[in-house]
Amino acid sequence: MQFYSDEAIEEVYKMRHAIEDVKSILNDLNDDKIIMKERTVLEVPGTHNTMLYMPCINTKSNYSILKTISIFPENTSKPVSQGVTLLSDLTDGQHIANLESSYLTRLRTGAMSAIATDKLAKQDAEVLCVIGTGGMAFEQVLGVIEVRNIKTMNLYNRTYEKAKDFKNDSKTLVLRVTFKCLIVFQKLLKMPILLTVQHAQRKVSLTIKTFRLMPILMVSDHTYLKCEKSIQLQSSTLTQSS
C-alpha cells in the first residue's frame, strides 16, 4: 500500500485539478453512482476534541474511501485539524493507498466554493470579501480567483493582526489582487462575492432579505456543534442567490 504525504500531494495536485475532479464527483452523485452515509462524529469525553469519520463508495470508478479527521482545538505543536484517507479497490477489496488529507480537505472545500462561484456570481465580479482569515481561508480564495478575475479582496476578521498576516502570506501567490483589511459590516451587503470562512459558535441565522442583497453568499464553515447546515438554509442560499 502506498502512502502520500500532504507535501507530496501539494507538489502535483492543484486547485484547477480539484475543481475538475469535484465537478466529476458531483455528476456521479447526480447519477446515483455515489453511496455514502452521514459522517460519524465522536466527541472525546472530558475534552473539546472530536473525531470525524466519513465513508463513501463510488460505483462508477469502483473505489471506496474512508476519511478520518481529528479536530483538537487546543493543539499548539501540531495542527488543530489532521486528516487521513484510506483508498480501496472495490474489485478485490485491496487497500491501495493512504493519503494525508489536511491539504486535500482544504482544497476540496475551496473547489466547491469555486464551482458555486462560477455558477452563481456575476461574470464580471472583481471584488471578493473574505470573512474570517483562518486556516481554511486561503484555499477558499484560491478557488474563487480560479474562476473569476478578482482585483480587490476585502478581509474581515475579529483581529486586525490575523487579517494582516493573511494579506502578507497571500500576496506572493495572489499577485494581481489588491488587499484591504477590515471593512465595516454595512459594506458587506454590497460585495459582488461574499465568502465566509469561520466556525460558528452559535446557530447561523441568515434572513431571506440578506440573500436578496447579494449575488452570492458562500457559507464555507458555518457549523454548529459540527452539524451540517440545514437543507432549508442551503435551499434558501441557492434560491436567493440565483
Automatic annotation (TrEMBL):
Signal peptide from the UniProt entry: none
Name of the protein in question: Frameshiftedornithine cyclodeaminase
GO cellular component, one term: cytoplasm
InterPro entries the UniProt entry points to: NAD(P)-bd_dom_sf (IPR036291), ODC_Mu_crystall (IPR003462), ODC_N (IPR023401)
